[in-house]
Amino acid sequence: MGVANKRSIAWAVAQKLSEAGAQVMLTYQDERLGENVTALAEGLENGSSCQCDLTSQEDIDRAFAEVDNKFGGLDILVHSVAFALREDLEGGFLDTKQEGFTVAHNVSVYTLVSAARAAKPLMEKRNGGSIMAMTYHGSERVIPNYNVMGVAKASLEASIRYLAADLGESNIRVNGISPGPISTLAARAIGGFTQMLQHVREKAPLRRNTDPEEVGDTALFLASDLSRGITGEIIYVDGGYHIMGM
What we know:
6 strands, 44% helix
């Protein structure tokens, strides 16, 4: 969930899972995005697509019923969905209006909860599963212009832990992946994003920015039995940037 184009982090994850043998279904919010996402899905081995606006319970019910009918259950759910109003991604967090706060949390956080709830019975058919969501270091540290999205990511990470606790008895694991800044369409809406990329290249221990394929590799690990003992965790894929004090 969350592929918009070939630069999307979710697309790098989808490719890695497909290459490893997974049957991958990409979801798209509406018809405007559907043509591009469907074309991407057709380029995957055993790829398919369906419409699912995660802010609509009706869409969620229909999409997960389609998944169940097509695959007879579900093993992996990747949530790579986030949104904030453009005016809230510049200036100060203090200026965030109630509407912007609500939109950011509803789209970026609650959609994980509603998707996990819909996935639970499908994963129970497979005796367990792996759910993962994309987060960012702005959840723990103040990132200029990230503002309400940083607060939403903090809520997302707390939700990951609570979901992990709720779903663990069904052998369903829930984890987060926290990449360094990657030049996606959504990221470029953040004021000063180019300077952010440069700063990370200069300060991260590995002295480079995160490659989307590295995120895909981590997602593949979390989707596989190799990570069967890991749940409720946030795994950083940022070249070590988050360990630095200055």
